[in-house]
User: Fold this.
Amino acid sequence: MTKLSLNIENSFGKGRKFKLSPSTLFPDIDNFTSSVELSFITQDGSAIYYTLDGSVPSILKTKYTAPFIINSTTIIKWINILSPYTSSNIMTRTITKI
Assistant:
């Protein structure tokens, strides 16, 4: 009897990653004077992971589930992740309290 070995890869090749469109941070502001509530808008069903300290977002960071409030100048970084092979680029926005 001959043993048959199968090596299953996705149809686009081993390890190839696909890029999602990044979600939108709302409201689209650069400055604020008091606290501000922020939210992400996405239309592809992907999960959004973000940081508020300028560190790199990943699945080990905060998962977006609801709007959040910032009270000081903040460097927000976020990424959309649909699967291990499908994510967006990391986005960055600095929102400054004036």
Q: What stands out?
A: Residues 72 and 97 are 5 Å apart (CA to CA). The beta strands are 18-19, 24-26, 31-32, 36-41, 47-51, 62-63, 68-70, 74-83, 86-87, 91-97. The radius of gyration is 18 Å.
